[in-house]
Amino acid sequence: MSSLSFSRRVLAWYDRHGRKTLPWKRPRDPYRIWVSEIMLQQTQVTTVIPYFNRFIARFPGIKALARADLDEVLHLWTGLGYYARARNLHKAARHIIREHRGVFPRAFEAVTDLPGIGRSTAGAILTLAFGQRHPILDGNVKRVLARYHAIETPLNKRETEDRLWQLAEKHTPGKRLADYTQAIMDLGATVCTRTKPQCTTCPLRAACQARRLGTPQRYPVRAASRKTPVRATRMIMIRDPRGRVLLQRRPPAGLWGGLWGFPECVNGSAQQWCRKQLGLNIQTDAPWPVLRHSFSHFHLDITPIPAQVVGGTDQAMENAETVWYNVRRPDQRGFSAPVKHLLEQLRASRSSRKDT
User: Are residues 49 and 118 in the same domain?
Assistant: First the structure.
């Protein structure tokens, strides 16, 4: 099948079955498309839609996002994961205000200079927003091309990446660029799925080499799997006499960067750690059950330890990085999913004690 036939078949399928009612499709605004493309990185459409709608309602444009406090941005991102995406969106909005007078740039190099935007995301934004011709290579497109051409080398190999980019360029048509870009992504997301691909309804089935071989799920070839490592930490949920809990802002980079969470003590006595690091004397209760949170490359086993302050709280004064948080009156700040879950449990336990 020629590249022209490839794109024609994909576009004909899109005309009948494509997802044309997604909330970032109309109007074709670069800001909305940019936000959606960042949210859709490693996240499914059904998960993204409610987050996108809330985000756009609060930050309808680049200026509103740039003026916002990072805590509020992270608050609206809570539960979506991969929080570096939110931090980069915020930084990029300020960069656009500073370097591009608040207008989303149209030059490819200027877009890839923005924090959090790589080659494929830049191509998708510029094609969907402005109709420019750029190939894209997100996870869905990689899967379609790797199966269609039965590429035998693993995805993590540089030669595979280079080959896929060549194929993406080859198959990208000269017309209906925005529709084709959305179509190839939709095809991978809804038909050429990772598990149980619907080959009988695929517009490319006649020439798909993986289907001819009878092994579509073998592609794309992945590197040999390794045992997922497990890390462990203890989150100390320190309450003061008023029932508030101590939260700290995490460093801006790294795991859950910029989010608020409980003090963490990995080794040794929690009491001694709190006395040395926080200047607080605490009394601990029995640990709660271990909570496992899985990332892409490791599992994190969290042991929540309830604790109460013994004596005063003067040493742990509130500042920009530390706060005594009222679980019964939540405010707008960003939490990781495990911390949000534990705060909800603390809120429920305080409510039940109050009711009794």
Answer: yes
Produce one character per residue of 11-42: b if its CB has 16 or more CB atoms within 10 Å, e if not.
Answer: bebbeeebeeebebbeeebbbbbbbbbbbbee
- Kindly give the residue spans of alpha helices, DSSP state H, lying in the chain: 3-17, 30-39, 45-58, 62-67, 70-77, 84-100, 108-112, 119-130, 139-148, 158-171, 177-190, 209-213, 270-277, 337-355
> Is 313 domain-assigned?
yes
Q: Are 193 and 320 within one domain?
A: no
18 is written with which tokens?
């494509």
In tens, the pLDDT along 221-271 reads: 988 778 899 999 999 999 998 889 999 999 988 889 999 999 999 888 999
* Residues catalogued as catalytic: 37
Global pTM value: 0.86
Residues 108, 197, single domain; the answer is yes
Spatial contact of 224 and 304, defined as CB atoms under 8 Å apart: no
How many domains is the chain partitioned into structurally? Answer: 2
Range(s) of the domain holding residue 311: 230-355
Please compute Rg for the chain using Cα positions: 24
